[in-house]
Every structure is written in C-alpha cells, then in structure tokens.
C-alpha cells in the first residue's frame, strides 16, 4: 500500500506543470524514504530529477517499493480538478493498476476522488555521477526566468560565464546581441534576493535557451535557483522545493559544443 498526502496541493500541481513539457511518460518511484523520478526528455538532451523526501509530506506510507507509470499530461489534467488550497492524497495498492487521487477542501466540506490508469513504462534508471562543480551560482529564480526570457528574444543559444565577482549571460542572434551581468550580492535582510557565487575556477559554457526556458517553469516552486557548472559536463539547474527535507527538482542540460572546434578536431 502506498499513500502520500500533500497538505497544499498547489505544490504538486506546480511540480507536474514544471515537468510535463519535457517528460511525457515517466515512472514515479515510491519507497520507504519518499518519492523520486528521473527521466530524459524525448530528444535526450536534458534530464529531469525529482526528489520528495517522506518528511516533506503531511503523511506518508509505502509498505514496499513500487513504480507508478504516469502520463504527465493526463496527470496534469486530473490535477486541474483540484483547487490550489486543496489537500491532495495519492494512493495505490501493491500490484494495482490505478492511482487514486483524493482532493479535500480546506474546511473539509468537499472531497473529490478520481482514479487514473497506470502505465507499464519500460525505463532504465540513469546513474547520475557525483560531480564536484567548478562554479555554483545561487540567484533569485524570478531573475533567472527574466534573463532567459529576455535573451530568448535575441537568439537561441546563451553563453553563461562565471567569474569571481559575477555571472554573465550573453547571446548573439539575427537581431543583434545582448548581455546581462549579475554581480555577487549578499542581501542579509532579504536572503531570497541574494546572488551568491562559489567559484573554484572561471567557467564559460553555452546552452540552448529553449531548454532553459522550459526549466524556468519551476520558478514558482522556489524563491531561488542554483546553477552548477563545470567544463564538459551538464549544467544542473536546481529548485529546492523544501530546504528542511532536502526535497528538490533538478534539470540537467548538456552544453552546446562549438561547431568550429569540432571541425578543427
């Protein structure tokens, strides 16, 4: 038997909305420690990883490990039947073929129940290697969203360069070029507005703005986003869903390789 209760259903709705345009079908793995998911996007350029620790939930029970095969677009449609303030409980029987969703209004006056057919999805669990990143930038998630949106008007590839005193986002396209520089800024009275840079060595990599734009759909989950970079390894964009329980949504994106360098090799 599996049962997990989101005291505020809005969080689950935001999580699914932040994943559904990248990942169509996925297995949500449930165990005694919580719920997790790893899936590549259809073009195998990016990877999405979700971790919700059991302490994150209002109540959590998982007698034995099970995988819930879900179509995220269908899941999202059913979640639209819930109000943002509703508590949402997910239930599944061991070996069952449906996921039960129960929506309960704040005052308990309305309870809705839906069943969603589970899918049998054949997917391998990808081992993400532990990486020591040369540069980690923590910044307001709304600022990251705005930069990605603004630079997307100019071109389709963004260069992200980290140095000790700041991080530079640059783009060149048919319209022209654009640069945004964020200086390191420790805002003591409003830590959510701080921009912090942990740097072992300067790093500069290029990424597809289309994917970064899809990642920023998670902006509502966390006031801050962190960008972890090292040469020749995927960028990690992390949104902490809950600091206390180390629950998060992470996106991995391979850097773009300079075609001129390829030709030279």
Automatic annotation (TrEMBL):
<keyword id="KW-0238">DNA-binding</keyword>
<comment type="function">
    <text>This protein is an auxiliary protein of DNA polymerase delta and is involved in the control of eukaryotic DNA replication by increasing the polymerase's processivity during elongation of the leading strand.</text>
</comment>
<keyword id="KW-0539">Nucleus</keyword>
<feature type="domain" description="Proliferating cell nuclear antigen PCNA N-terminal">
    <location>
        <begin position="1"/>
        <end position="124"/>
    </location>
</feature>
<dbReference type="InterPro" id="IPR022648">
    <property type="entry name" value="Pr_cel_nuc_antig_N"/>
</dbReference>
<dbReference type="Pfam" id="PF00705">
    <property type="entry name" value="PCNA_N"/>
</dbReference>
<dbReference type="InterPro" id="IPR022659">
    <property type="entry name" value="Pr_cel_nuc_antig_CS"/>
</dbReference>
<protein>
    <recommendedName>
        <fullName>DNA sliding clamp PCNA</fullName>
    </recommendedName>
</protein>
<dbReference type="Pfam" id="PF02747">
    <property type="entry name" value="PCNA_C"/>
</dbReference>
<dbReference type="GO" id="GO:0030337">
    <property type="term" value="F:DNA polymerase processivity factor activity"/>
</dbReference>
<dbReference type="GO" id="GO:0043626">
    <property type="term" value="C:PCNA complex"/>
</dbReference>
<feature type="domain" description="Proliferating cell nuclear antigen PCNA C-terminal">
    <location>
        <begin position="127"/>
        <end position="256"/>
    </location>
</feature>
<dbReference type="GO" id="GO:0006275">
    <property type="term" value="P:regulation of DNA replication"/>
</dbReference>
<dbReference type="GO" id="GO:0006298">
    <property type="term" value="P:mismatch repair"/>
</dbReference>
<keyword id="KW-0235">DNA replication</keyword>
<comment type="similarity">
    <text>Belongs to the PCNA family.</text>
</comment>
<dbReference type="InterPro" id="IPR000730">
    <property type="entry name" value="Pr_cel_nuc_antig"/>
</dbReference>
<dbReference type="GO" id="GO:0019985">
    <property type="term" value="P:translesion synthesis"/>
</dbReference>
<dbReference type="GO" id="GO:0003677">
    <property type="term" value="F:DNA binding"/>
</dbReference>
<dbReference type="InterPro" id="IPR022649">
    <property type="entry name" value="Pr_cel_nuc_antig_C"/>
</dbReference>
<dbReference type="InterPro" id="IPR046938">
    <property type="entry name" value="DNA_clamp_sf"/>
</dbReference>
<dbReference type="GO" id="GO:0006272">
    <property type="term" value="P:leading strand elongation"/>
</dbReference>
